[in-house]
């Protein structure tokens, strides 16, 4: 590997631009006027630790027509990500060592981001019988995050047992909080908009009731809990309450729940259909504040590719889910940095450091300092760009941000000193 100097970056957006020299994948020197065999002119870009996504749907195995480990890795690299956690709701489900090892191996072969498979909590995601968590943890994939995402682990006894197992494995359960008895047939956030449009409601309490129950269970068992895609102001209240009492709970929010709300549903365009649903303006505002305060720990994309035929259909038949990997940073800049809720240190915290800690990754979310891995996202804070789903690396194109002009552009991504994305191209 040749030596590299990245010229003119501002670590965490602080101070005057400096040069970073990289040797053997590690930051060897930070200073002025550095030189090496290869040079990359970063033109004043903000340097951040590479982003970590705790919640990505890669669709391999089973729906390779919508995304693969390779195409999802390309999207991740272009979005500034250096590690992603791949959800288990594939076909077959990642509820055993064979499937998680396949996803892990494909991630290594592609080599653009560290792909960490998430194992299912229950066999087939059916909520009835615990999957072999220990075997998945002991496999080559070294699974440390378990989730039935797409489905809620609704049975409290199964959830309790799962928390007991993951405590012993030093792992964490990422819960899709949705009380299924309260969301039968649900199509949109239960509120004025859904009532006017004639869509069956998905009430906030269906999320909040499970989050409250799981916080109590986690505390009772002494286990860690992670809450996926927090979407309501009420869930923020529950999380604050639980954290104040010392419960080991962490939580993520998606870019789309930070920026969008159910006022977009008027045209019945299924690109806006997602689980949990887009809520109200006041919910989005509460989520932004909670992310700034740390009550919500991090941003996770819930990148959920879907084929055109599963989205370009009537609302009730469409699948829920939205792309997120290539727009996450820009949506965080729009919703958090521009209004002054987070500075670049804060962006590093919510997009890299906290998710790395929650997922148990020791090589990601590291400080930008000599001796640390050169695993970085370089961001032009002044650039703006227009979202075009068709241009994304993902096979699917279901972005709710289509046509929006967004701030902040990833100019390069490095994984252990190697460019995985540069000037909008992979590698
Ligand atoms: N978020 C979604 O609307 N869909 C996800 C599942 C999930 O995250 O619950 C999917 O797999 O498509
Ligand atoms: Zn989910
Ligand atoms: Zn998901």
UniProtKB/TrEMBL annotation:
Residues where Zn(2+) 2 binds: 149, 176, 229
Keywords: Hydrolase, Metal-binding, Pyrimidine biosynthesis, Zinc
Annotated catalysed reactions: (S)-dihydroorotate + H2O = N-carbamoyl-L-aspartate + H(+)
PROSITE patterns recorded: DIHYDROOROTASE_2 (PS00483)
Dihydroorotase catalytic domain sequence ranges: 45-232
Pfam families: DHOase (PF12890)
Active site: 302
Residues that bind substrate: 57-59, 89, 275, 306, 320-321
Ligand binding (Zn(2+) 1): 55, 57, 149, 302
Required cofactor names: Zn(2+)
Pathway, per record: Pyrimidine metabolism; UMP biosynthesis via de novo pathway; (S)-dihydroorotate from bicarbonate: step 3/3
Any GO molecular function: dihydroorotase activity
Keyword Transmembrane: no
Stated role: Catalyzes the reversible cyclization of carbamoyl aspartate to dihydroorotate.
Name listed for the protein in its UniProt record: Dihydroorotase
């Amino acid at each position: 590997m040749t030596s590299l100097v990245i010229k003119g970056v501002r670590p965490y957006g602080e101070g005057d631009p400096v040069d970073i020299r990289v040797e053997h994948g590690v930051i060897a020197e930070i200073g002025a006027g550095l030189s090496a065999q290869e040079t990359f002119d970063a033109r004043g870009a903000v340097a951040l630790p590479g982003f970590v996504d705790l919640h990505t749907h890669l669709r391999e195995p089973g729906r390779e027509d919508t995304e693969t480990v390779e195409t999802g890795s390309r999207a991740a690299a272009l979005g500034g990500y250096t590690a992603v956690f791949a959800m288990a709701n594939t076909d077959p489900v990642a509820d055993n060592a064979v499937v998680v090892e396949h996803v892990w191996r494909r991630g290594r072969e592609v080599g653009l981001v560290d792909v960490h498979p998430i194992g299912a909590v229950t066999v087939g995601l059916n909520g009835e019988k615990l999957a072999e968590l220990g075997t998945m943890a002991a496999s080559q994939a070294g699974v440390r995050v378990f989730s039935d995402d797409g489905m809620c682990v609704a049975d409290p006894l199964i959830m309790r047992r799962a928390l007991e197992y993951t405590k012993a494995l030093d792992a964490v359960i990422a819960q899709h909080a949705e009380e299924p008895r309260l969301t039968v047939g649900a199509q949109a956030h239960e509120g004025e908009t859904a009532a006017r449009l004639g869509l069956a409601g998905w009430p906030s309490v269906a999320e909040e009731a499970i989050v409250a129950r799981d916080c109590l269970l986690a505390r009772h068992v002494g286990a860690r809990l992670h809450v996926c895609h927090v979407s309501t102001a009420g869930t923020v209240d529950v999380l604050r309450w639980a954290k104040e009492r010392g419960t080991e709970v962490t939580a993520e929010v998606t870019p789309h729940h930070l920026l969008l709300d159910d006022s977009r549903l008027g045209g019945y365009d299924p690109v806006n259909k997602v689980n949990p649903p887009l809520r109200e303006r006041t919910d989005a505002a509460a989520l932004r504040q909670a992310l700034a305060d740390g009550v919500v720990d991090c941003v996770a994309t819930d990148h959920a590719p879907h084929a055109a035929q599963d989205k370009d259909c009537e609302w009730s038949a469409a699948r829920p889910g939205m792309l997120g990997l290539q727009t996450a940073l820009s949506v965080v800049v729009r919703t958090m940095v521009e209004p002054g809720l987070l500075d670049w240190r804060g962006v590093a915290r919510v997009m890299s450091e906290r998710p790395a800690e929650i997922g148990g990754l020791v090589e990601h979310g590291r400080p930008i300092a000599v001796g640390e891995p050169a695993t970085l996202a370089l961001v032009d804070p002044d650039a703006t760009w227009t979202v075009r789903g068709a241009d994304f690396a993902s096979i699917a194109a279901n972005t709710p941000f289509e046509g929006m002009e967004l701030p902040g552009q990833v100019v390069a991504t490095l994984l252990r000193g190697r460019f995985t994305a540069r000037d909008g191209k992979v590698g």
